[in-house]
Structure formats: structure tokens, C-alpha cells
Amino acid sequence: MGHIKDIAKIDGKDFSEFTHNYLNTATPVILKGAISEWPAIKNWNPDYLTEKIGNHTVRYKKSETNVHPIPQKMEDTRPTESLFSEYLKTILSEDSAEAAKYCLSGDEAYFSNEGVTNPNFVSLLSDFSIPSFMDKNKIERIGFWVTSKNVSSWLHYDGGALCNINAQVRGKKTVYLFDPDESKNLYMFLAARGEAHHFSQVNYLNPDLDVFPKYKDANYFLGEIEAGDMLYIPKYWIHTFFHTGDLNINVNFWWKNNVFPLNSLSARDNFVEHCRNAYNLGGRTRENMINFKKLLSKNSTIQNVMEKVEKSFFLPQK
Ligand SMILES: O=C(O)CCC(=O)C(=O)O
Ligand SMILES: [Fe+2]
Prior knowledge:
Helix content is 24%, strand content 26%. It is of the alpha+beta class.
């Protein structure tokens, strides 16, 4: 394996150290105890959550394994729905292998999206607060995550050039973070193929080193977040979490900030954006994405040129 370092940890109440040394330098860090005063830390147990939001319908991922999503099957995987109370019962059931196939994530469940509050979860809003270093107007989405033990996300970076603060309200997660330039060892899916290009092709829990030999050279940062901690993931950092508490609950804040690091992934995202703009399919709507994919599949010349640029400049795997 490549080099493994610990993710830095600081006193989570010291936002001035965080802002100067981490936020503004795009350096990941764990802010220990940053949210220990949130009412959510005491309140968010199964009974309380069932009472407050149990009757609301929630969407979540249902996968064949404990890893979510499986990017190779993304197109056939539609989120599933049920009442939150049913979801909670299922993931707290006796069969833990089955429970780990469920993942209610910030992709589907959110407190607010582009400034619009989700009415289903309003009753939980007074249990947490937006960190004071964050400009409220630049928050794109506040996500809600509820899972059982042994759930894992697939190795990816967050789209939309967004920074991320992920707050652990209950349970524990082991966090793996890769610098964006480690993408040279991570075999990201190609945007030129219309694939899930924020995702690595490698299953980090069981990497196939015959197919992905450079993965063994990938350097990463490792850390653990427990109830009360916040993690800062700078934009474009590639990450995955392994969930180790019996019940894991997180609130995360995706927001725009002005720090704009130039790296291989930011350059690639810009390149892809410009290619889409050239065909009047810019803007990150689902429709534009689908139409761009259709265009690429019909025009092998554009596809091959894009693929060459992606591979030679942004994702070289020598
Ligand atoms: O909790 C996880 O497994 C993943 C979290 C994540 O990907 C995020 O906060 O963007
Ligand atoms: Fe993420």
C-alpha cells in the first residue's frame, strides 16, 4: 500500500485555527468535539427520531452489498422508499448483513437543498446549527445520513466543486481521504464514457490489483470520527467512510467557498464542463448530463478526443 498518514485533529471549538490553517489551505482535519453542544447529540435516539419523523416517507439506497452505491450498477439502481420508522426498524434488525445493504444518505435525504427547507425534517432543525465559519448563503445542501454497522460508501469525490463538513451526531466512522492528485492511482471512471466520473473503479475493500495495479501506490489519510466531531473534506478530495457504530447518524454541509485549489480533478471537471458548454449542454441538470452522454455515444470522434485528454493530462496512470 502507499503511504498512510493520520488526518490532523484539532480542538473543534477553535474556529480561528481551523479557518487559518485548514479551511483556507484546503487541508482536511477533524474538529474534535465541535458539535458536542448540539441538542441532537443527546436527542437523536431511535424513539425520538421515530416520534419526530417516523411517519414521513424517506428515500434510500438498497444495494446488493454493504457498499453504496455500486457505480457500475448506478443506472439500474433506483432509490427505494418507505416510512422513516420502517427504515429504522429494518436497519436495527437482528440480521446485520442485511441491514448493511441499506443506506439513507445525504444524496437522498436532506434538511435543505439550494436554500429550500425539506418540510419532512423541520422538526429536527432546532437540534443542530450551521457552523459559524460557513456563509449561509453559500450552502448548497444539508444532508442527513442514517445507517447501521458495516455500511461503507464507494470511493468518490463530491460533485459541484463543493467543500464538505461532515458532522458525526451518533456512532462512529473510519474515514479514508485521498488528495485529488492521487487520482493518478485510483482509476476514476471516465467522463468521456459518460460514466460515474466522480467514482473510482476500485473497490477499496477488495481491490483487484491485477486490474488496478497502481492502487497499491495510492497514499491516503486515515482517521476516525465519533459523536461530537466534525470532519472537513476540502473540495475534490476523494473519500470513503466505513461505518462502525451500531447506529450512525450524520449531518453534512456541502458549501461553496472561495478557496480554489488547482489540481488534476478540478482541471478535469472544468474541461468536461467546457466540452458540455460547447454543445450547449452546460449546467448540471440531469437532462443535460443524459443528453451529453447520448451525444458522446453517437460521436466516437468527440468521445475519443475527450478520453485522450482526460487520460493524458488529468488521470495519467503510468
Ligand atoms: O458516510 C459516508 O459513508 C460518506 C460520506 C460522504 O461521502 C460525504 O459526506 O460526502
Ligand atoms: Fe462524499
